[in-house]
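Researcher: I'm preparing a figure for a lab meeting and need a structural model of a single chain. I don't have an experimental structure, so a prediction will have to do for now. The sequence is pasted below. Please return the structure as tokens so I can convert it later.
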Amino acid sequence: MRVVLLLCMVLSSTILSAQSPYVLPGTLTDEIADRWEILYDIDQEVFSTQRNRSRKDVTWMAHMLNNEKLINNKSLGLSALDLLDIEYIINDNAEYNLDSYNIGIIESNSESEKVYDSTGVFYYIGDKDIEVSEGNSGLRKPIFKHFYKSNANFYEIHNSSFDIVVNPILNLRYGSALDDPNIIFQNTRGIELRGMIDKKIYFYTNLLENQRGFNNYINERIARDETIPGQGFYKDFNSAVIENLRGFDYLNAQAYVGINATKSVAVEFGHGNHFIGNGVRSLFLSNYGHNYFYLKFNTRIWKFHYQNLFAEIAPISSKQNPGDRLLPKKYMANHYLSFRPNKNLEFGLFEAVVFSREDQFEFQYLNPVILYRTVEQFLDSPDNALIGLNGKWNIKNRAQLYGQLILDEFKLSELTSGNGWWANKYGIQFGGKYINLFGIDHLDLQVEYNIVRPYTYGHSRPLENFPEQSTASYSHHNQPLAHPLGSNFKELLFNIRYRPSKRIFINARIINTSYGQNPDGTNTGSNILLETGTRADDFGNFTGQGINTTMQSLSLDVSYQFAHNYFVDFNLLYRNADAELDQLDIETRYIGGGLRVNLGQVRLDY
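Model: Understood. Here is the structure written out token by token.
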């Protein structure tokens, strides 16, 4: 028995580099994987900094933990909640229980192979659809013979050639805010489909139809930037039935297809977004903004992971482009190389460039191994290039320290002079996580500090038809590609997660931020969309300049999972932004709740 299990673990390491559909951010699977990466000595081939986590990787981690105690005949000190986490991940990713890394006993059957996994479930592997035994918490009697064969998925087919999983998506929320006569609501309905073909080609798509009314501070941002955070085209919505039910109506979709071209290289293209980093925020690339069209190469060899991303993005929003005109385009390319010398350390080098030209792709940036600054010199180009460093250190299976440094433009002599030169544009992140705080199971704390200088991510050269905006700001559809605030801010953030029981999940977030707002007609460096040639001053610049604003936010989210990925949510928010100009003060006191199905919590802090 022990020999069989060890052999299966060796086989598992040979396919680990294969890519698969990703775990959605903010979901329970994403949070569990984040804990495991700190608590346990996960193999060096699993990289956590590229936060588009592969479902196959996460399932592999679950199987490794589920069988480690069987191999060594010892306990990892797993609590009842830890075992529930393992069970949840395995049930949530049934398509990867059929691969060669499934740890179990293999027997023959007259019709096909019968595979038992470590929890005692068996699958028939053949050309017909999957069949399952009774008596496992992840399995159930199907509804109408076809639906919910397992607790996790509405409809699924698994055989030797392909895997398909289909699930509904729902987010129905209702709430109210003090001094706001409008109902704060969300009505999101959709569907997601994911799968694999021949264990080499993977695909994912979701389609979401939305009507939503936001809190006051989000409405102000929408009015300022003419875009909804994370969304594209939208129109006004006013209910003809319910009074004070007004907001916005918008449709969105995410879809991609990829192929594991070799054991170590995957190629993917689609519409979506990405996240690089270990923090709540990323100063490199975040999933705050709208989906964009991209082509991505992932190379995972030994202790290295190299990601190349080429994207088509928009310099303005759809609201600024009325009628049937084609939305203008700009292009971005970035590389991220990460290295794990051992299971506890990871270092990364990031570089990105946004082309400072409209509707034109620069093919020289397709070179996957050249420094972009070198290409800029070849071209005598005015493109917006950024470089960054990332680091992460797991300490004694309890804590993690992480950080980022992003450089947009930088001149050491000007920095040391202390004269506040405008083009010393950089950002710094420091953060830490502690798992099972005070020895309390599933009580996790994250503390993070971010600071970004004025004018960082911005660029010169105005758009032809929108001269107040830049052709090459680090943005898409009027939304930052990195931190939601853009630049010219300091942020201290505390994030606390607690799971007191099998079905209850609690998340509290405390934020204290100091940032500068632009006075009317003056560019003091906080709005990255503005062309930097309109800056107020060359010298004397400092973080928080302009109309200084201090924002404190306290949110509490309590969720009850009454079925797999079916949650009832309760939400509280107190947020107060106090500006030097009283007319810019804005206070929010919100209470609400709702039903959420197959979606993570998405929190809009700004």
